[in-house]
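Exam revision sheet. Question 4 asks you to relate a sequence to its structure. Input first:
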Amino acid sequence: EIVGQFNVTTEDKNVTDEGMPLEGEITEEEEETVTIDRKALKKLLNKIQSVSSAVSLGDATSAQTQAYTWLLEQDPFRYDLSLDRSMNRYTMAVIYYSLNLPRIKKQLFETENECDWIGVTCSAFGKITKINLQNLGLNGTIPSEIQYFAGTLTHVDFSENDIYGEIPDGLYKLRNLNYLYLHHNKLTGTLSSKVSTWKPLKDLYLGNNEFIGQIPVEILTLQKLRFFILHNNKFTGQIPFNIGNMVNLFYLDLSYNELAGTLPPSLVMCKKLRHVYLDHNMLAGPIPSFYGRLGNYWLIDLTLDSNQLVGGVPEDWGDRKKLLSLKVQDNNLSWKIPKELCNLWAPDGEGELVELGADCRICDCHFCEGRCY
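Answer key, structure tokens:
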């Protein structure tokens, strides 16, 4: 048991022959203080054991062991800390050690308040609500101890590093998470059905990693999600059929994966949708005729190129003419680009379309010459 490594003993109370206490003897008042300290220490260590496994705490080289050794023996500000503050410091120290934060000693030994540590934002009550370690050269794994902040953490940004390994169970326990940015790392494994815990989530950025497996249907329970970005991974299977249930979607990017199946008709239910990137997959079948109505006719970007789509491009794009970019090249389309779409070309003053990616054999728009594929 860890507590045994840090026990404070009061058994030796030697006195001189004259009955005078030896130098260093613990008086009755001091003994009471030591007893209180031991109780507080045991509470702290029990709390640590509730978030860290016995295996990690028994490994002398682990981030967990480094963190509690620092907290209990080396932290220059360890005295008179509340249990909650001690756990804040332990958890952040585990995160720093696990991710190999550069210049870690400056945080742990020179900065008194953990709310002033790099990447940490606290509420007015000292609760850690945001951790932003973007682009700091991190090259470790995300520790499950982050679950200690399940009740307070709303924002996590570990993007643009070299973090590897899988998303730990502890991260799935952050029930108040609003923003999660893990893009541009080397994360692996699958996306768990436990994503359903992230009910308040608004932004989910997992692009440019090495995730595999199917997109879990539980993702559809994230009704507040606005930005859903999984591009440049190795996701397989189909796009969830009822993705239209995510009615607050604004930006959808599932490009550069290995997704198959057909384009989901339910996407038309996402009235706030403005940007859709489904290119470079293995999607087949026709483009639904009502895809011109995506985002309630307010769609800005629709990128479907480099798939196996057949048929043609929708004719109905409405009269709001907000479409800026449409890419459908490198598919198996055979129908000509409709004139209604040609009339949206911005230089002609009829619409705002500035980019049309299409194979030359299906594009007769006057501006296709020299621009088609």
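Marking note for examiners. Residues 28-51 form the longest helix (24 residues).
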